[in-house]
Design brief:
98 residues; mainly alpha; two-stranded parallel ribbon; 53% helix; disordered C terminus
Length: 98
């Protein structure tokens, strides 16, 4: 999805123990960002449908990414590094009262 490609999720394969996976699956389903199918669906028909509606799905996908991933500018590592650096710099030194 982040690579700006259509996503097809096979729901039946996700027996995940990841916390809150059901809510993520529901968000994907309701947002229109991913086309969800079951194992019994005809994959070739779903692929054709996705390709015919690619522009509409792209709009939903971009909205989902904006709401879920903050800023996809390639600078997330830089932001995290700055946060960690600031936390370390502002942390008080522990007193060594022996």
């Amino acid at each position: 999805m982040i690579l700006d490609r259509p996503v097809i999720t096979i729901i039946d394969l996700h027996n995940s123990k990841i916390k809150d996976f059901e809510s993520v699956k529901e968000r994907l389903t309701s947002s229109g960002a991913s086309t969800n199918i079951s194992k019994s669906d005809n994959l070739s028909e779903v692929i054709e449908k996705v390709l015919k509606n690619e522009e509409q799905i792209k709009i939903h996908r971009n909205k989902f990414l904006r709401e879920s991933c903050y800023n996809l500018d390639g600078k997330s590592s830089e932001r995290i590094t700055k946060i960690i650096y600031n936390l370390v710099e502002n942390q008080k030194q522990p007193s060594l009262n022996l």
